Amino acid sequence: MKDRSGNHAIVLGGSIAGLLAARVLADAYPQVTVVDRDELVPGSEPRRGAPQGRHIHALLARGQQVLEQLFPGLTAELAAHGAPIGDALGDARLLFGGHRLSRAATGLVAVSASRPLLEDRVRNRVRTLRGVRFAPPSKVVGLRSSANRRRVTGVRVLRRSPGSAEEVLDADLVVDATGRGSRAPAWLEALGFDRPEEDRVRVDVGYATRRYLLSSDALDGDLACVNGPTPDQPRGGALTRLEGDVWMLTLFGLLGDHPPTDPSGFGAFARSLRFPDLHDAVRTAEPIGDPVAFRFPAHIRRRYERMRHFPEGFLVMGDAVCSFNPIYGQGMTVAALQALALRHHLRPGAGPRSRRVLRSIARVIDAPWELAVGADLALPGVKGRRSLKLRMASAYVNRLQIAAARDTTVAQAFVRVTGLVDRPEALLRPGIALRVMRTHVQPSGSGEAERQPRRRAAGATSGTALPQVGEGGEEQGEARAG
Ligand SMILES: Cc1cc2nc3c(=O)[nH]c(=O)nc-3n(C[C@H](O)[C@H](O)[C@H](O)COP(=O)(O)OP(=O)(O)OC[C@H]3O[C@@H](n4cnc5c(N)ncnc54)[C@H](O)[C@@H]3O)c2cc1C
Hints:
The protein has helices at 16-25, 61-70, 74-80, 115-127, 184-190, 263-271, 277-282, 331-345, 354-377, 388-404, 408-418, 430-437, 448-451, and strands at residues 8-12, 31-35, 85-87, 92-96, 99-100, 109-111, 132-134, 138-145, 152-159, 167-170, 173-176, 197-213, 224-227, 235-241, 246-253, 286-303, 314-316, 322-323, 479-481. The protein is an alpha/beta fold.
């Protein structure tokens, strides 16, 4: 593997964040090399380096918009590969905070593709870009720097073939997109830099997912149903129709309340949910295989933008910077928004200034971080600082969700914010706030959940909290390391 050239960008990790980084880098660098330890072969099977592909992967509305911008026609291409397409609220049952959101079209597109299919189609598009190549499967083991250590000049890799020795790939820019388990903090330390501070919020989420063969009207024509957690029931799930009339049911529980993977325990967990929709839809369905599990201990945000010294020629993106509780479905959309942020800093012939890009990436992360962490802090068992502002925001969202169960305008506004299309402040606009304030709140529990004969809601409250706009998410972490 010889790679000595100018204007060469190397992307570490060929998953969603790495592919999207490669997409924008290809406009500015004549040569872009993607390095992944997996063999990234065409096809839509889950792969070893992205085990999350066995679980539901919602592409938020904003993510769909950005992917379409980066790869025109991608939505139609996914549809041609069998992915059902619909409206983000008009075709989805959203059961949030113990309330069944009212239904209306939003004009926001929901693409119901499996994660492997989505990644395969994106990778296929990236493969065809001029100057982009995929290196043979190789593990990245470290960085190479200039003699004064101010600039990263390449990466050290080990090919995944017997008897291979460490090699160096030279580059003008190295982008780490190796995911949550990124070793960038250690690589930087080895070059004499500090490690980044880390915000962590422990949520101890367990996933279990099973696939089913079902007819396309299993949810009366809806594409998906999402049953969010509530403080009194920190568990939930989602059922979604994927390509090929295969349906995927993911169940999850926070704070150690994990769904079992034995079929009867899995079914009992589905039956225990506040709303019967998920269980009813699959009760008599033919399963494909047994449930598979995934554990997610904590939200992690690495504060590279706060480091006093950071080398030029190096960036960190995607889950390697921030990995969110997956139940909010934000990761791929935030990776897409980070790619747009990077593109903003790219000029032909001049490399981006690392610290500026890292600051832009941090700004992209702020709102989704606060949404996800704020929502989790509504659960009493999640440790973290609950400022007055956060508590007020949480109370507002409780009320907003009650309003959204009756008022389609409020439901639409809420879906735009949780889909990362609008900023959270949109929910405070007078047109929405007045509707929320006019909502009559019953003393204990309310909404559709109470009308469900089988599982009565008690004290249903928020599963989503408004972010503390302007506070930058500080102090929300359970622990920090620096
Ligand atoms: C259970 C679960 C469910 C999720 N659900 C959703 C969802 O519904 N919606 C959503 O938007 N997001 C979801 N996410 C998050 C989403 O998967 C990620 O945000 C998204 O894949 C972007 O991550 P990434 O590309 O940064 O890293 P990853 O997807 O983790 O990819 C990292 C890549 O780096 C490679 N790699 C790692 N280390 C090395 C190394 N040393 N050398 C070479 N290669 C290496 C790996 O092989 C892999 O290809 C979920 C995550 C999990 C865990």
